[in-house]
């Protein structure tokens, strides 16, 4: 200090050469991690006394602390009030005598907060689904009272149809089917009538409720009340998703049917639907359920009636049942009432092995 004071002189020089004594405390156990072993170098709450010039950069502290304790400098981070950087000094962070700096293992940077959560997006698009101000596409759904034999002119009457409106831009953005359906004619090619009229005529096998569930999924990527939908309606939505190439909706419906609707009375109907609607996930789940509950399912009349419509679907069930049978014949000698085996050999044991009825199995592998 005497030499420094002689060089610098004055009050300003004393301040520049001023030291500060402080403590570095381990916030947690500090480990040196290698490819083959991990060694604890510092125990949590361990203090280490330091003395630094107030204008000295903390990079020298970081290097010294890591080297003294046998740690890697890049594995550690230091905190006073805020995280300490290499260029910081005791003076710049207003470190005083007796203060404590905390050291811990370096954390990965926190990911940025999302601009909006899923619930907010769900509410926005649900509101859009209920706001028909800018809707420019119409689904025409036959009412349930409409007869299949009704003439075409009568079927077009407003009283026999339900109009459900939607946004063409949402439909085309979410599904390739509607993107192709609404594509405009180019180079003289004929476009679909729907691309000009923006009207989709729905088959009588689907109801207005099915179309609304489908639109809810297209707009919000979920169906909020799916748990309350009946098995028959879910199968209709499965049909609709297959017809209009709604892959994600199809996956959602299959999952719901598998988890909450499959039982001895419904599995036959679901299994038959997998053939019509190309639902492979549901098909595998049905076969697994049938194998697990084979006696109950095959004894149910609904299964027999359904299989009459899809006789070829019995083949995968038979193959699955065959997989459960051990390979190769299992020959067992049957005991007769006279105490002899069916092969004529006496069953009276002649040694310890015979007393056990077969070759003894060791208690443990050699």
Word description of this protein:
- The chain is α/β, with parallel strands linked by helices.
- Among the domains are: 2-7 and 14-105, Ubiquitin-like (UB roll) (Roll); 118-147 and 154-224, Potassium Channel Kv1.1, Chain A (2-Layer Sandwich).
- Helices cover 42% and strands 13% of the residues.
- The chain is built from 17 helices and nine strands.
- Strands 4-1-6-5 form a four-stranded mixed β-sheet, covered by helices on one side. It has a three-stranded mixed β-sheet with strand order 8-7-9.
- Strand 2 (30-33) and strand 3 (38-42) form a beta hairpin.
- The longest helix has 14 residues, at 247-260.
- The relative contact order is 0.05.
- Mean pLDDT is 81; it is low at 1-13, 146-157 and 341-366.
Short description:
Helices cover 42% and strands 13% of the residues.
Query: Compute the gyration radius: what is it?
Result: 39 Å
The percent of residues in helical segments reads 40-55%
Strand runs, count:
9
- How many helix segments? 17
| Helical/strand content category | alpha/beta
The CATH topology of the domain at 118-147 and 154-224, please? Potassium Channel Kv1.1, Chain A
- Give the overall form: elongated
CATH architecture of the domain at 118-147 and 154-224: 2-Layer Sandwich
Give the CATH H-level superfamily of the domain at 118-147 and 154-224. Potassium Channel Kv1.1, Chain A
As a percent range, the share of strand residues is 5-15%
H/E series: HHEEEEHEEHEHEHHHEHHHHHHHHH
Runs with pLDDT <50, length 5+?
1-13, 146-157, 341-366
With strands numbered from the N-terminus, the spatial order across the biggest sheet is 4-1-6-5
């Amino acid at each position: 200090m005497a030499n420094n004071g002689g060089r610098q002189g004055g009050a300003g020089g004393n301040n520049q050469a001023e030291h500060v004594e402080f403590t570095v405390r381990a916030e947690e156990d500090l480990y040196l991690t290698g490819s083959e072993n991990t060694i604890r170098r510092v125990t949590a709450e361990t203090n280490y006394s330091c003395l630094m010039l107030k204008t000295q950069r903390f990079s020298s502290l970081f290097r010294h602390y890591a080297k003294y304790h046998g740690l890697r400098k890049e594995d550690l981070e230091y905190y006073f009030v805020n995280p300490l950087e290499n260029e910081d000094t005791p003076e710049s962070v207003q470190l005083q005598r007796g203060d404590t700096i905390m050291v811990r293992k370096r954390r990965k940077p926190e990911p940025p907060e999302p601009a909006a959560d899923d619930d907010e997006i769900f509410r926005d698009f649900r509101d859009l689904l209920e706001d028909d101000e800018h809707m420019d596409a119409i689904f025409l759904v036959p009412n349930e009272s409409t007869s299949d034999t009704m003439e075409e002119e009568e079927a077009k009457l407003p009283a026999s149809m339900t109009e459900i409106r939607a946004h063409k831009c949402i439909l085309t953005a979410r599904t390739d089917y509607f993107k192709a359906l609404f594509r405009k004619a180019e180079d003289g090619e004929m476009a679909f009538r729907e691309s000009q009229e923006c009207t989709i005529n729905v088959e009588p096998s689907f109801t207005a409720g099915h179309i609304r569930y489908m639109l809810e999924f297209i707009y919000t990527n979920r169906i909020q009340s799916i748990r309350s939908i009946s098995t028959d309606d879910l199968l209709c939505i499965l049909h609709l998703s297959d017809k209009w190439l709604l892959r994600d909706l199809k996956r959602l419906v299959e999952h719901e049917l598998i988890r909450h609707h499959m039982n001895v009375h419904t599995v036959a109907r679901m299994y038959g639907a997998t053939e019509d609607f190309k639902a492979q996930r549901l098909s595998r789940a049905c076969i697994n359920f049938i194998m697990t509950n084979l006696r109950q399912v095959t004894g149910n009349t609904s299964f027999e009636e359904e299989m009459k419509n899809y006789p070829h679907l019995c083949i995968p069930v038979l193959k699955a049942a065959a997989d459960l049978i051990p390979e190769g014949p299992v020959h067992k000698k049957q005991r007769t009432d006279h105490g002899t085996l069916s092969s004529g050999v006496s069953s009276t044991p002649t040694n310890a092995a015979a007393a056990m009825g077969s070759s003894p199995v060791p208690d443990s592998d050699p």
